[in-house]
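Folds abound. Consider this:
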Amino acid sequence: MGRNGIGKTNVGYVRQNNEDSLFVLNGPIGKLQNLYIVADGMGGHNAGEVASAAAIDHFCTYIRENAYSNQYIEELLASAAIYANDKVFELSLADQTRQGMGTTLSVCCYDADNLYFTHIGDSRIYLLSGETLTQLTADHTFVEEMVKSGQMTEEEAQYNPSRHMLTRALGTEYGVAADAGYTPIQNGDLVLLCSDGLSNMLDNEALAAILRGEGTVENKAEQLVAQALANGGLDNVTVILL
């Protein structure tokens, strides 16, 4: 895999400010060889921006402070997410204007053989291997749970007005659960992390078409953002491509 992940973010056409935060580190941190994070904040009075930035900050602190952890990498990532959750929740309790703030968090890192990831919320991680695009994360949303239980089809979910309702977010209570896992990777694979400002504006076919197309990683990241804007730009759009 190429050494360089590329991050792009855009406020979009509807929102006044950008509540998304991203973190791109193509070099080592703690025991990790690299680190990539997308967080999509929520809450009034700019609290969404505070939540997403603080989540990344505390996550990175945990990774640095646990450089000699004997946990498996995916477990270390999940532990860092849980630590960040409690710190952001404490931050919300300390300031009236930030009550109820929260954020999604999607994180990955890789070594020669595997991609490791953890996530909370509905910011997604995709893997393009060969011609096949796979969504590695499952959205923590009301409609996704309806789909899983067979009460709604994928198509219905895509246009359901409640599709933004999260069943799990970082920073809204103590002790959140973080999903974590790993998957084998090979040379030439592409990994995409994105906020729902991208995944709500482009379906998987459109995402895959851009990722499979010609151009550098940076070109493709720019194309993804441009296409989300062309399709309406209804939310902040954030992508990391590696």
